[in-house]
Amino acid sequence: MNFSGDVLLHAAPEAVWAALLDPSSLQHCLPGCQSLEPIGPDHYEATVTLGIAAVKGSYKGRVQITDKQEPTSYVLQVEGAGSSGTVKGTGSMVLTPSPDGTSVHWSADAQIGGPIASVGQRLVGGVAKLIAGDFFKCMDRHLAENGAAVEKRA
């Protein structure tokens, strides 16, 4: 399954870059993230609790950040499993300066298996976009709360 979207974060690219790679910021803003622990450079173990329709579960997995081109892009490799199934995927973030902050284009390609796959691609896709929306709204608030917001232009 492929997902993608574009969002504007109201902070400079360097601040957005730092926040999108900071484990505590990610754990705070990723819906359902219980833990995100470094296990090596750009490698993390994660525990996430999510539910889609009647299929709910906790997932444990690993996240690796690759192909970093500071401060413009990077790739995430994700693998996880839990009682409700498995997930394996690749995602990318591309940051572009904008007059009002930083435009972020994100895309993901995920393969899911087990009971969670039975809820159907259409429902999973909608939930994935909702989770991404919540994540970026939280990240925009987090950047503003930490003084990284770009002043609005008149």
Could you walk me through the main structural features you see in this protein, from its secondary elements to its overall organization?
There is one protein chain. With 154 residues, the protein is α+β, with helices and mostly antiparallel strands. The chain contains 3 helices and 7 strands, in the order E-H-H-E-E-E-E-E-E-H. A 7-stranded antiparallel β-sheet has the order 1-7-6-5-4-3-2. The longest helix has 25 residues, at 121-145. It is globular, with a radius of gyration of 16 Å. The model has no long low-confidence stretch (mean pLDDT 88).
Radius of gyration: 16 Å
Per DSSP, the total helix count is 3
Order of helical and strand elements: EHHEEEEEEH
End-to-end separation: 41 Å
Mean pLDDT reading? 88
Low-confidence stretches: none
Assembly state: single chain
The major pleated sheet works out as: 7 strands, antiparallel
Side by side, the strands of the main sheet go: 1-7-6-5-4-3-2
Share of residues in helices: 25-40%
Shape: globular
- Measured by DSSP, the beta-strand proportion falls in over 45%
Number of strands: 7
Structural class: alpha+beta
